[in-house]
Design a protein that fits this description.
By secondary structure, the chain is an alpha/beta fold. The two termini are 35 Å apart.
Length: 564
């Protein structure tokens, strides 16, 4: 056999130097709940052309064979130029440096404390991007990696099914037996966990060579919306360029036809919640100030000046009137200002109060960074998962002195409020997150953490937030603050701009599979009781830094969840 291949779990990482064996496995064993996906990776060397794949119908003893939807994709390599850094904010306050360097999110040398928490020392490449077959020439030297996914149906009967994947290469055919165990449990028809990944509209135009708001652009935007929805996103945000344009007097004004078309596009694709963009921006170069350094979006007008407050009230009232007239007020969330710092709390609360007066009945949401003064002022509190899920350690020492997780959750839930969590360039270190140099299991378990913590949503800032000088196929590390600060690898994005639309990734697969796990845990809670579901969930995750790390052990826990 000239072609060699090796099977890997979909949570494994494959590198260009990963050994590829000469003996194929006797079979691939998979398990899935009804209505979910089972998948694996296949690394092959010795190819001169891309193989042809044929998956036979799945047969169970005593039953008619069933055809299950499946997809086979190429997994492309991308670079990891530098490793994610150790996170000193996870240390007790007394051990933290007094001042943090601006370039603090990556480490050129790899801190020894961080070494156990990344998959490899940078620089390196790994297989990550899921591209259609034929999208790129086969690798002559490095292993070619393929992703094989099988989707069960909600009505697929539980049981053990067998199929064969036939792989035809030049001059030979390889048969790979597959055993798929479909569990008794079924994915609920409606997802309860709210998911939002912020996305960059101009990047869609830039990487697909399209004019913003042209017919071709709207068609491409729909492709992005469909991919997001396929991978569990059910909340979409309204960016400033959708809603606001400059009038002849240079003052911002609303573009209602564009706003309506945009909202309807996402609602038509199955999204359920509208996430209004921040009303005010911050000038980071001026540092954190009690005034908040807040300016009205798309202007140089200080938000808390007399002019700023009057204009903000006028704009907010107009927006809310339009949203209510369209009947969208029941599914609308409004941001105020991103990540308020403790020094900005007073200014933040003033802006939030103004918006509530201008938009009576609006629900406010914010990603907050351990700022106790704003707790209780929002309808959807979104703390960083480090703030809420790592006992005894917090970004703001004062926060720990007055709050614990349970108290925070109780306050957030008052009046029908919700608690979500978010992650971004932190937490790092041993904590769960979705960086490219982290093990994929850390990405999947984020939504187990959501379940354990009672969070009802998850926010991340980076679906396709490539920076101006960043080609995501060649650079995984984006830069901010005029290039002075490098973000962790993959923090800016979890999808790639493909040839004819967006391409997902193994991290996006792990994220969506984790969402399904979360929904199955909720279903288990209803059918078997909260104690049973919590007991199983805590076998996988206790806190953001205490969780199962072995893929085999996780798969055993997963089989308990799906009753396979």
């Amino acid at each position: 056999m000239s072609v060699q291949f090796q099977v890997f779990d979909s949570l494994d990482r494959v590198f260009p130097d990963t050994p590829v064996g000469s003996k194929p496995p006797k079979q691939v064993s998979l398990a899935a709940a009804r209505g979910t996906r089972a998948s694996f990776q296949l690394a092959m060397s010795g190819l001169t052309a891309e193989p042809e794949f044929t998956l036979a119908p799945f047969a169970a003893e005593g039953r008619r064979a069933v055809r299950l939807s499946h997809r086979i994709q190429r997994v492309l390599y991308v670079p990891v130029e530098v490793n994610t850094s150790w996170d000193p904010l996870l240390e007790p306050p007394a051990k933290r440096p007094k001042e943090m360097p601006i370039d603090m999110y990556v480490d050129d040398r790899l801190d020894p404390r961080m070494a156990p928490h990344v998959v490899r020392k940078a620089p390196f490449e790994l297989a990550e991007v899921l591209a259609p077959l034929g999208a790129r020439p086969v690798e002559a030297v490095r292993p070619n990696v393929f992703f094989v996914a099988v989707d069960t149906k909600p009505n697929t009967p539980p049981g053990t099914y067998r199929s064969t994947l036939t792989i035809r290469t030049a001059g030979e055919a390889i048969e790979l037996p597959i055993e798929l165990t479909v569990g008794e449990n079924k994915l609920p028809s409606r997802q309860r966990l709210r998911i939002t990944n912020w996305f960059h509209l101009a990047n869609i135009a830039r990487f697909h060579d399209l004019e913003m708001w042209s017919p071709a652009y709207w068609a491409m935007l729909r492709k992005y919306a469909r991919l997001m929805r396929e991978y569990g996103q059910n909340v979409f945000w309204i960016q400033k360029e959708v809603l606001i344009e400059k009038g002849s007097d240079k003052r911002p004004r609303f573009n209602w036809p564009r706003f309506d078309r945009y909202v309807r596009l996402f609602l038509d694709e199955g999204f359920e919640v509208i996430e209004g963009c921040h009303f005010v921006d911050r000038r980071f170069e001026e540092g954190y100030q009690p005034s908040g350094n807040y300016y009205l979006a798309e202007t140089t007008t200080p938000a808390l000046s007399t002019e700023g407050q009057c204009f903000m009230h006028e704009m907010a009232a107009d927006l809310w009137r339009h949203v209510r007239n369209r009947g969208w007020d029941g599914i609308y969330l409004q941001h105020v200002a991103d990540e308020p710092h403790p020094k900005e709390a007073e200014a933040y609360l003033r802006v939030a109060n103004l918006l509530r007066r201008a938009m009576p009945g609006v629900r406010l949401i914010e990603a907050i960074l351990g700022t106790p003064a704003v707790v209780g002022s929002l309808d959807v509190h979104v703390p960083n998962l480090a703030d809420m899920h790592i006992p005894g350690v917090d970004r703001d020492p004062y926060f720990d002195s007055i709050w614990n997780y349970e108290n925070f959750r109780k306050v957030a839930a008052t009046g029908g409020g919700e608690l979500w969590i978010y992650s971004c360039c932190g937490p790092r270190g041993p904590a769960l997150n979705r960086f490219l140099d982290f093990a994929l299991i850390k990405t999947r378990l984020i939504h187990w953490l959501n379940y354990v913590g009672g969070a009802t949503g998850y926010l991340h800032w980076g679906l396709n937030m490539y920076r101006e000088d960043q080609d995501p196929f060649r650079q995984s590390v984006g830069k901010v603050f005029d290039g002075q600060c490098r973000l962790p690898p993959g923090d800016t994005h979890i999808i790639w701009p493909g040839d004819d639309g967006p391409w997902p990734s193994l991290r996006f697969e792990a994220m969506r599979d984790g969402i399904h796990d979360h929904e199955l845990l909720l279903a288990m809670q209803q059918s078997e009781g909260e104690k049973a579901a919590n007991r199983l969930a805590r076998r996988a995750v206790r806190t953001a830094v205490d969780y199962v790390r072995d893929i085999g052990e996780f798969r055993r826990i997963q089989r308990k969840l799906i009753k396979a």
